[in-house]
């Protein structure tokens, strides 16, 4: 899941990184590695979406705001698999009344299915200088 922009607290998000419900999966980025997403994994995930015409949003926490984390960085370092932290935009995370958009559930299903169908072909063509 990802923190969607709340209409009463729009200023809590970077201007160009405001995840909205019903607009597709959200790729989460953090320079301090609080999320497992890298430039390469974000590109691969976005490319799958582009090929299958699926909407993607990107989220970067403001520099002056605190940030939670996921288990993604721990899992990625332990197993050595390239990882992208992504999720559906929602309001009221960790509340008893979490809210997300129903269209995003279908987008998630479509994107994950497309990922398994398309990843190998995209990855085969990718050349990354390390």
UniProtKB/TrEMBL annotation:
Record InterPro entries: Peptidase_M18
EC category: hydrolase
Identification of the protein by name: aspartyl aminopeptidase
E.C. numbers: 3.4.11.21
SUPFAM superfamilies found in the cross-reference section: Zn-dependent exopeptidases (SSF53187)
One GO biological process term: proteolysis
A Pfam family it matches: Peptidase_M18
Organism: Parasponia andersonii
MF term (GO), any: aminopeptidase activity
Reaction equations catalysed: Release of an N-terminal aspartate or glutamate from a peptide, with a preference for aspartate
